Amino acid sequence: MTRHATDPFPDLPATLACGDDTVAHYGYAPGADGRPRLHPVTTLGGIAVTEERPADHLHHLGVCVAVPDVAGYNFWGGRTFVRGRGPTALDNHGVQRHLARPHRSPNGFTQELGWEAAGVELLREYRTLSATRTSGASWELDFSFVLTNPGGTDLSIGSPATNGRPGAGYGGFFWRAPKEAEPPTVFSAAHEGESEVHGRTADWLALSGGGWTLVFVGATEETRRDPWFVRTTEYPGVGSSLAAHERLPVPAGASVVRRIITVVVDGRPDRETAARYAREAVAR
């Protein structure tokens, strides 16, 4: 028997740590749209770099995997974008259920999840998370996931962009950062600013706020082909888009595999230093 997404979380470690330093808490977010997420996540110096259920988007839950359209079902939360109608409240929300006791490692674990809607398991996910200290001022969160279609029918993953809302290709790995007095800065190896980096592919992307920086690194060739979804002015958030421009087919028995390494840094490194962090993350 599977657990409901709002049930207690007894089989998983409550924290990720780098040595004696706890850097992240993992569990199900409370509420109807709850799903497994990391929150709070902090720098080694103790600065919080995630936000959960902020007033501007109550369905933003720290660090998670969320998709607004899996075969027409909403695994993102909030309203569903409907072509010709816009954001619409629909009774089409799915849940991510914890299925099996995780395989633990010294610095992380693997979790098995069933993505269910209308009584049907649409996707089976294997999620692996680990935390590694890389210096006195930085650590890496290695977050990979495999989404497999376990049924006998082909399906596809979409986004508001594929359903008619330009520029809204979010869905997949997503990190909601804290909203501060000033918007964070964002840059890649070649571009700077939200309008320049949003919707583009880049091997890495850095988001810098008040005393902290997140360097997001696509750790596989498939992941690097996904455009980045970036917001800084409306709210601070970064995602890796599975369906930025067109629906992503997931045939029966097939899998989608992605891996993002995020370097969590105390301070605001320059572009050259951020690029070094990215190179070293992929090389490990």
Please describe what this structure looks like.
The chain is globular and about 50 Å long. The chain has helices spanning about 195, 220-225, 270-284; strands at about 15-20, 20-30, 35-40, 65-70, 75, 80, 85-90, 95-105, 110-115, 120-135, 140-150, 155-160, 170-175, 185-190, 205-210, 210-220, 230, 235-240, 250, 255-265. By secondary structure, the protein is mainly beta. A hairpin with a 2-residue loop joins strand 1 and strand 2. Helix content is about 5%, strand content about 45%.
Q: Which overall shape is indicated by the principal axes computed on the Cα atoms?
A: globular
Mean pLDDT: 94
Category by helix and strand content: mainly beta
Beta-strand content estimate: over 45%
Order of neighbouring strands in the sheet with most strands: 8-9-10-11-20-16-15-14
The total count of helices amounts to: 3
* Overall radius of gyration: 18 Å
**What does the largest sheet look like?**
8 strands, antiparallel
Order of helices and strands: EEEEEEEEEEEEEEHEEHEEEEH
Q: Brief description of this entry?
A:
By secondary structure, this protein is mainly β.
Helix-strand layout with pairing:
Layout: E1 15-18, E2 21-28, E3 36-41, E4 63-70, E5 73-75, E6 80-82, E7 86-88, E8 95-105, E9 108-117, E10 120-133, E11 138-148, E12 155-158, E13 172-176, E14 185-188, H1 194-197, E15 204-208, E16 212-218, H2 221-224, E17 228-231, E18 237-241, E19 248-250, E20 255-266, H3 271-283
Antiparallel strand pairs: 1-2, 2-3, 4-5, 4-12, 4-13, 6-7, 8-9, 9-10, 10-11, 11-20, 12-19, 13-18, 14-15, 15-16, 16-20, 17-18
